[in-house]
């Protein structure tokens, strides 16, 4: 029987409050010093054959990891991670124990924060239908210049944001999206969360051509 697996974590020193997973409460499968968070009887093929069920399952996967992450440091696994049997999973835990212990020690106290950078729309520059001749050509030139100036300023602000992030968070991972927006994944110690939000406010105030959004602490999905 395949075993749906959410995460790896150190064997808990105290009993965890195990959350509801995709369809039932998750369970812990012990190795030696490492445990796996699993759910039995998850039919991935059925989920993948129904878009609505698939979306619900993905949301449940992330929610489950988030609830566990509030209790203990963990290494999150991607949605759909399966092991062919409980025995295969336990053998994996023993084989990779040293690697997972090292990563867990490295991530203790840290969370992943997502900084979204959304470009503001270009300012509207309407030309009256009553404008004719040279005045119309001048207005078109001014509209073009204003558009170019805004785009240049927006580009310069993005370079500044990226430089700030690189300066303070050298492990950051940037991802460019198709709509010209950007996502930056930050690995930050929770004790420095207040400082992160202070910097975020400074970035937003400095960069009026961008709308910035900063999420709450998540498991270190992109740094495992």
UniProtKB/TrEMBL annotation:
Compartments it resides in: Gas vesicle
What does the UniProt keyword field contain?
A: Gas vesicle
Q: Which Pfam family, any one, appears in the UniProt record?
A: GvpL_GvpF
Q: Which family does it belong to?
A: Belongs to the gas vesicle GvpF/GvpL family.
PANTHER family xrefs: PROTEIN GVPL 2
Q: What is this protein called?
A: GvpL/GvpF family gas vesicle protein
């Amino acid at each position: 029987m395949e075993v749906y697996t959410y995460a790896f974590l150190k064997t808990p020193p105290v009993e965890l409050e195990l959350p509801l997973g995709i369809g039932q409460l998750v369970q812990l499968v012990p190795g030696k010093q490492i445990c796996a968070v699993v759910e039995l009887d998850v039919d991935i093929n059925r989920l993948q054959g129904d878009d609505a069920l698939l979306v619900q399952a993905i949301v449940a996967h992330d929610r489950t990891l988030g609830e566990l992450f509030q209790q203990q440091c963990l290494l999150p696994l991607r949605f759909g991670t399966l092991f062919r049997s409980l025995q295969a999973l336990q053998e994996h835990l023993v084989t990779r124990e040293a690697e997972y212990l090292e990563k867990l020690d490295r991530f203790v106290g840290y969370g992943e924060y997502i900084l979204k950078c959304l470009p503001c729309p270009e300012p509207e520059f309407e030309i009256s239908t009553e404008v004719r001749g040279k005045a119309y050509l001048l207005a078109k030139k001014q509209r073009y210049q204003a558009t170019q100036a805004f785009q240049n300023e927006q580009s310069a602000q993005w370079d500044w944001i990226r430089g700030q992030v690189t300066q303070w968070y050298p492990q950051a991972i940037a991802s460019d999206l198709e709509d010209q927006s950007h996502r930056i994944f930050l690995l930050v110690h929770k004790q420095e969360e207040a400082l992160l939000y202070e910097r975020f406010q400074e970035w937003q105030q400095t960069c009026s051509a961008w709308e910035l959004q900063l999420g709450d602490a998540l498991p270190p999905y992109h740094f495992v």
